[in-house]
Amino acid sequence: MKIITDINTPLVGCTAATIGSFDGVHRGHLAMIDEARSRAEQMGVPLTVITFARHPRVVFNNIAEPFLLTSNDEKMELLQEAGVDSCVLLDFDKAMASLTAKEFMHDILLQKLNVSLLIAGYDHRFGTPQQGEGFDNYVEYGRAMSMQVMRAAQFAPDGIKISSSAVRRALSQGDVEQAALMLGRRYSLCGTVVHGAALGRSIGFPTANISLHEPLKLLPADGVYECVLHHAAQSFKGVMNIGCKPTLNGDKRTIEVFIIGFEGNIYGSETRVEFVRRLREERRFASIDDLRKQIELDVNNVKSNNY
């Protein structure tokens, strides 16, 4: 997949395109990409996904709280797996956002990116909203530019609307299994293993502390999770704790994984951790020994889960 970050050199040849944030690249996004790919193949042109180097929420709201489901690197990998030919990472800013839909379609989609067919999400809106403007207007603007504009079918399996917001809600409740159903894969975190306070080692369960690559990556609700950790072309079951470790008087939120069956030095390594299911809430235990016993139960629970 070709990744385009400079749109000042127009694309050679026409393209079919779809546009959006694509945060999470969930099943709804993939359904729209599949539809767009089919249309592109019928026309004999490549498929381009147009997305944003910075999520619009960051541009407009100066977001500090984590909310992203995918980093740009993760998004590019997922779009490539989906069979996209080119991905345009727009340098989205307030100046670009101030364009009307007609201006955006003409100045960016037509002149810069040579889009001949645009597949829009069923609820997508372009540019600065104009009173009374809707999808029929986009079709009209496109017709005047010799650009065909089509609306993608809504993807709602079993009547359930899949969206990035719905995935975020599931994660905020710790429901990583529901999030996985909407994503079409397990939710995961990517980061570097760093040194921690070694509190887990002191009770017999040394953990890998993970520093996220993307600081705005959304974490599921605090709690204890079954996970799979991928390291050096190997995969290990694990028990992950997200939270402040109240029994050990922790003072900041951390991500720690006890890796079942792993021996060796993992510090400084890049790793990816997939969430399988939530085991329990994080809570304060009456004693360190009670905590140790509960962790043993958690580990045995994970070991017995076959998948």
Summed up, the helix count is 10
Radius of gyration computed on alpha carbons: 23 Å
* Strand order within the widest beta sheet: 1-4-3-2-5-6
* Dominant shape: elongated
* Mean pLDDT rating: 91
**How do the helices and strands follow one another from N- to C-terminus?**
EEHEHHEHHEHEHHEHEEEEEH
Query: How many individual domains?
Result: 2
The top-level CATH class of the largest domain is Alpha Beta
- DSSP strand (E) fraction? 25-35%
Distance between the termini: 32 Å
Instruction: Report the CATH architecture of the largest domain.
Output: 3-Layer(aba) Sandwich
Q: Sheet with the most strands? A: 6 strands, parallel
Structural class: alpha/beta
CATH topology of the largest domain, which one? Rossmann fold
Key features of this structure:
single chain, 307 residues, Rossmann fold, 2 domains, 6-stranded parallel beta sheet, 6-stranded antiparallel β-barrel
Can you describe what's shown?
The protein is of the alpha/beta class. The chain folds into 2 domains: 2-159, HUPs (Rossmann fold); 186-303, Riboflavin kinase-like (Elongation Factor Tu (Ef-tu), domain 3, Beta Barrel), CATH 2.40.30.30. Helices cover 31% and strands 25% of the residues. The protein is built from 10 helices and 12 strands. It has helices spanning 27-43, 56-61, 72-81, 94-97, 101-110, 135-144, 164-172, 176-183, 199-202, 288-303, and strands at residues 2-4, 15-19, 47-52, 86-90, 115-120, 148-151, 188-194, 208-212, 223-231, 234-243, 254-259, 270-280. It has a 6-stranded parallel sheet. A 6-stranded antiparallel barrel has the order 7-8-11-10-9-12. α7 (164-172) packs antiparallel against α8 (176-183). It is elongated and about 75 Å long. It starts with a strand and ends with a helix.
